[in-house]
Design brief:
The chain is of the alpha/beta class and 338 residues long. 44% of the residues lie in helices and 17% in strands. The chain has helices at 2-17, 45-60, 78-87, 119-126, 129-136, 180-188, 201-206, 217-222, 248-251, 256-290, 300-309, 313-316, 318-321, 323-336, and strands at residues 32-37, 65-70, 92-93, 143-153, 155-158, 173-176, 192-195, 212-215, 231-233, 239-247, 294-296. The radius of gyration is 23 Å and the shape is globular. The structure holds D-xylonic acid.
């Protein structure tokens, strides 16, 4: 009897190996794990957006997909995680647009100083044909650009001086993202910019190897920069979009239905993330003020001085970005602002 069972078992495994028999009863597809990494922490609206994405995908796929989240740059900083997507060793990440310029210089257009007047105009341009054209250019770099999320308007923090005018920035060592437009902007403003991965900012500030940095207020608060910074100026000098992206190598292994399911969840989670991101900015500023930071709210004239001081930056990078791309986004912004 025992031998018969053994023979049957062997025969079955030969049939399965020859693909003549399903290895498991139909419908018992194994769960596929999607890994998503970000640089911000678990309190960030970006992470809450990922939790929403996870909830949508796991529910919609009835458990066929499981989404594992990795915050705090556990899987590396933005540039490193994008490299992992391109290599097919990580499914998803959500960097700012700034490091994408390292793949394709036309992305620098989103990092121009004082480009978008407000979030509403930013949403219209990013979610319109201009933004879609940029997302559609990513597969050539091994990335599927699914949707724009929001990092937000960037504010300056520093440990040395209250900054009310460009002159106050003179000689300040400011960490910037690794992007030529950001570097040129802070050089033009008289500062001494230092590009650095996001995860190294806090230790550089506490060791005083840099005097300041710039990020949206929610990030500045949640990263506890108030412990090592005395001043913040609400300058809104850049608007940073996030791009929620998928590895093309791994995307191409998915069925069309599953690609549609993931894309739909990415868009829905993005709308949710933008909403909660905006809701947290006010409380973040209040939290930094309560923690003892001096919060400088620029007057229109003071703000104008920063805009005027950086008005030539676009021209300096027109060739790199593509004059047509620069012209197109300025036209889109003018239309959206009407
Ligand atoms: C986090 C970064 C961060 C960005 C920066 O991964 O690098 O300063 O603003 O949000 O994407």
């Amino acid at each position: 009897m025992k031998n018969t069972l053994k023979m049957t078992g062997m025969a079955l495994s030969l049939l399965v190996a020859a693909g003549l028999m399903a290895a498991a009863p139909a419908g018992a597809a194994e769960t596929k794990t999607i890994k998503a990494g970000i640089g911000l922490n678990e309190q960030s609206p970006q992470y809450k957006g990922l939790l929403k994405f996870k909830e949508l995908v796991e529910a919609e796929s009835k458990g066929r997909f499981k989404v594992d989240l990795f915050a705090n740059a556990q899987l590396g900083d933005d540039a490193k995680m994008m490299t992992s997507l391109r290599a097919g060793t990580l499914e998803m990440t959500c960097p700012s647009t700034a490091p994408i310029a390292g793949l394709d210089r036309k992305w620098m257009v989103f990092d121009l100083p004082f480009l978008f007047p407000n979030e509403e105009v930013a949403d219209k341009v990013l979610d319109g044909p201009f933004g879609q054209k940029y997302l559609d250019s990513l597969p050539a770099h091994g990335i599927i650009g699914m949707s724009f999320w929001e990092n937000g308007f960037r504010q300056l923090t520093n440990s040395k001086v209250e900054v009310k005018s460009p002159a106050d920035l003179k000689g300040l060592k400011i960490r910037t993202m690794e992007n030529p437009v950001h570097l040129a902007t802070f050089k033009t403003l008289g500062a001494n910019p230092t590009p650095m991965p996001f995860s190294e900012i806090f230790s550089a500030l506490s060791e005083k190897t840099i005097d300041g940095q710039e990020n949206p207020s929610t990030t500045n608060f949640l990263q506890k920069y108030y412990e090592v910074q005395k001043f913040t100026t609400l300058s809104n000098h850049f608007y940073s979009p996030f791009v929620f992206m998928y590895s093309k190598k791994l995307w191409d292994t998915l069925s069309k239905e599953d690609q549609a399911l993931i894309l739909k969840a990415a868009k829905e989670a993005g709308a949710y993330q933008r909403k909660i991101n905006r809701e947290t900015m006010g409380e973040a500023v209040a939290g930094m003020e309560k923690a003892g930071m001096t919060v400088t709210r620029l007057t229109p004239e003071q703000h104008r001085a920063f805009v005027d001081a950086t008005k030539d930056i676009a021209g300096q990078f027109e060739k790199d970005m593509g004059a047509d791309n620069l012209k197109a986004i300025l036209e889109e912004i003018a239309k959206a602002a009407k």
